[in-house]
Specification:
five-stranded mixed beta sheet, Rossmann fold, alpha/beta, globular, Arc Repressor Mutant, subunit A, five-stranded parallel beta sheet, about 725 residues
Length: about 725
């Protein structure tokens, strides 16, 4: 919890799971380990029928969507992946549920998965568990595909938030299934068919209003209804909520002249707010803060410190159609609910729930409960990080990380580790930063991904790095020979040493790979004996010292974008600043390698920057030397749900020489934001061609490209969907 000196995570956190070809031992206090599994994957048994989430109650008759249902059925029958997309409240979920219910009535095998807030990796894992009986096992992608290839079912995924690449990964993970997906934004994938859902036609809209009003509008009310339908273009949720407001007024005995449907949205919001009691307001505030996620009764009790929602809170909200019951709990409905809250004090920021969520996770929440609330945990962390409440972020991330790792929600685990590591760096907490970095190393190793180069981003300068290196090579004066390890092997088993010492080695122009333990595996993979949290410290600690609490109170400044730590840490998460800060967080981009180019040829490289923020003004993309360099946007701003911005840099030298330029993007306030130094060497096709570098060097000196910072993944290659 914020401000505490120690945090112990209780519950069923510790234990062993199997990920791909690795056994992973989760330890909340001392860090996890991943070791090769010689005995192969555990046994799995396919379920007789898939066991996904239960569909919500059987939907009412779908009005005005017969054509769309027929199109979806035709495309699925032809073997296409089908995506239905459109704005919130347009009826995507209603369409999917109606189609799914019809298929179940035909006795078709079906898996229904709500995916709001879930990484595609976690959606795939839920799909696997819906189809196979196995515990604590996450197959590698190739085996997942082989197993799922035996399943022939309809997979219905609602509220999908991934990119086109994620959608392709989902389809590839279930090659035997038909896939129907609903999303706000269109993200076309290969072999996909996309259906944009628009508003209802006037006839269907009038029928919907009549059903919700429980009468047919006549006279002045019909005229008002037609005006409303035209104004909102048949938007179903708006029509339903408008009818609910009229019925609530009638139930309260209020007179009206039949023009209730014509009232503007603000007037309806004021009227709805006046009908809410204090219990209803508190419940709506909580649900709206976490929208569009569904919140369980258990979590509502945790976040509000009150018993689960009762009749006095639920009845007015359901009467006004401001909330809906949606497995596994409740969620607010659309922008109108937010507008209503503006007239009763507004919705809280989800980050405010971090201390309550931390307390719950660290005092007995099970891994199953944590997995069920993984999307809420991620949202609370994101909002708390946006507020720069780094202590709350660090504490919540420490409490959530082992539970999500143990539950195999590894997409959410990755998000938690990223947030935790960034906040630990901002606080100058080497202990916590090393813990999160170590867990990320374990995650990537178990998934078979490239090793992570861990860099101390804050609080541990060259002195701390040297101390960590000295510590790892021989802590407390002990000879490394006595431990049976080489110096680099000892370094690799100390996460803090990995972080700070590697930063020092990089700064000195030396890159050292982790040593082998002698058994063919990197030292980091060897399961260490339990040690105190002080093993993660960047400073020398005697072997018999008392364990240090994981949550120090020290803090330090965030490194600037021009600092060595920042320039070497492009694998750290990039989080937006607080609203109204007037500045987007600065960030360096690793430059692509242009090599040598023969005049007058040109060389183009695509830059894939995966940490774009809404405050980045991509239209300001520019380069300092326009005579020899050119930049061009290719796919930026990214589509909804993605942070991948793509642009190209072209090196087109006029004369031989060595060239250097700076590529920049400013933020929405015109401040320097993203930057990347590019270099290239132009050579003459004809040796007689004179040289002419665009940035002339000093006399008797040559201009040479700077040494690239070693990173595990540069921005010129797409971010894998499983990371």
């Amino acid at each position: 919890m914020a401000g505490s000196n120690t945090l112990r995570v209780d519950g069923d956190v510790g234990g062993q799971i199997v990920v791909g070809d690795h056994n992973v031992v989760i330890n909340a206090q001392y860090g996890s380990t991943a070791t090769p599994r010689p005995e192969g994957p555990p046994p799995t048994r396919r379920r007789d029928r898939p066991a996904g989430r239960a569909l919500p109650r059987r939907p009412a008759e779908l009005l005005g969507r017969a054509g769309e249902l027929a199109t979806v059925d035709e495309w699925l029958g032809d073997g296409h992946l089908v995506q239905v997309y459109g704005p919130p409240g347009i009826g995507k979920s209603a369409l999917l549920r109606r189609y799914a219910a019809d298929q179940l009535a035909l006795d078709r095998e079906l898996v229904y998965l709500p995916a709001a807030g879930l990484a595609v990796e976690d959606v795939i894992q839920e799909l696997f568990h819906a189809c196979f009986e196995t515990e604590d096992y996450k197959p590698e992608p190739a085996r997942m595909r082989r197993l799922m290839g035996t399943v022939q079912a309809l997979l219905v995924v609602d509220d999908f938030e991934g990119s086109a690449q994620d959608l392709t990964a989902l389809a590839d993970a279930a090659p035997g299934c038909d896939l129907l997906v609903a999303a706000v934004a269109r993200c076309p994938a290969e072999e996909a068919r996309t259906l944009r859902l628009g508003g209802l036609p006037e006839g269907a809209s009038l029928d919907l209003l009549a059903r919700e009003l429980r009468r047919t509008p006549e006279g002045a009310e019909r005229a008002a209804a037609c005006e409303l339908i035209g104004t909102v273009r048949g938007h179903p949720l708006t029509l339903v909520q408008s009818a609910a407001a009229v019925r609530a007024a009638e139930n309260a005995g209020e007179d009206h002249d039949g023009s209730g449907l014509a009232a503007d949205e603000t007037a309806r919001a004021v009227g709805a707010a006046a009908r809410l009691n204090d219990d209803a307001v508190r419940l709506l505030r909580t649900l709206s803060a976490l929208s569009p996620l569904s919140v369980s009764s258990t979590l509502l009790e945790v976040l509000t410190a009150e018993a689960g929602p009762s009749g006095p809170a639920l009845e007015p909200l359901e009467e006004l159609n401001l909330i809906e019951r949606d497995a596994p709990g409740l969620r607010s409905r659309g922008d109108f609910a937010t507008l209503v809250l503006r007239h009763v004090g507004g919705a809280p920021d989800a980050g405010e729930f971090a201390p309550a969520l931390t307390h719950w996770l660290s005092t007995g929440a099970t891994r199953q409960q944590a997995a069920a609330e993984a999307t809420v945990i991620a949202k609370v962390l994101t909002d708390a990080a946006r507020r720069e409440d780094h202590t709350a972020v660090r504490d919540l991330a420490r409490a959530a990380a082992p539970l999500l790792a143990r539950s195999l929600q590894w997409g959410s685990w990755r998000v938690v580790l990223e947030h935790g590591r960034a906040s630990a760096a901002a606080l100058g907490s080497a202990v916590d930063e090393a813990y999160f970095a170590h867990e990320e190393d374990v995650r990537r190793k178990a998934l078979g991904l490239a090793a992570v180069v861990v860099v101390a981003a804050a609080g541990g300068g060259a002195g701390a790095g040297a101390a960590a290196l000295h510590n790892s090579l021989g802590a407390g004066g002990r000879s490394t020979a006595a431990t049976g390890r080489t110096g680099l092997s000892a370094l690799a088993t100390n996460p803090a040493a990995i972080g700070t010492a590697v930063a020092v080695l990089i700064a000195g122009g030396v890159f050292v790979s982790l040593a082998d333990t002698g058994h063919g595996q990197p030292a980091i993979a060897a399961p260490p004996a339990p040690v105190s949290a002080s093993a993660y410290s960047a400073h020398a600690t005697p072997p018999d010292a008392e364990p240090r609490p994981f949550s120090p109170s020290s803090s330090g400044p965030r490194p600037s974008a021009s600092s060595p730590a920042a320039s070497a840490s492009t694998d750290l998460p990039r989080l937006p600043g607080p609203d109204g800060s007037g500045e987007c967080i600065r960030y360096p981009i690793t430059a692509p390698d242009f090599g040598q180019v023969t005049v007058p040829e040109r060389e183009t490289r695509e830059v894939v920057f995966d940490k774009w923020l809404p405050c980045d003004d991509e239209k300001s993309l520019d380069v300092t030397d326009k005579a020899n360099w050119e930049v061009r946007l290719t796919d930026c701003p990214p589509p909804a749900g993605s942070r991948v911005c793509r642009f190209t840099v072209t090196f087109r030298p006029r004369t031989p020489g060595t060239y250097r330029a700076t590529v920049t993007i400013r933020d929405d306030w015109g401040q320097d934001d993203l930057s990347m130094d590019v270099t290239g060497v132009a050579v003459a096709a004809d040796p007689a061609t004179p040289a002419g570098p665009s940035v002339p060097p000093e006399p008797s000196e040559s201009v040479s490209p700077p040494e690239p910072t070693p990173t595990p993944r540069g921005p010129t290659e797409p971010l894998p969907s499983t990371t």
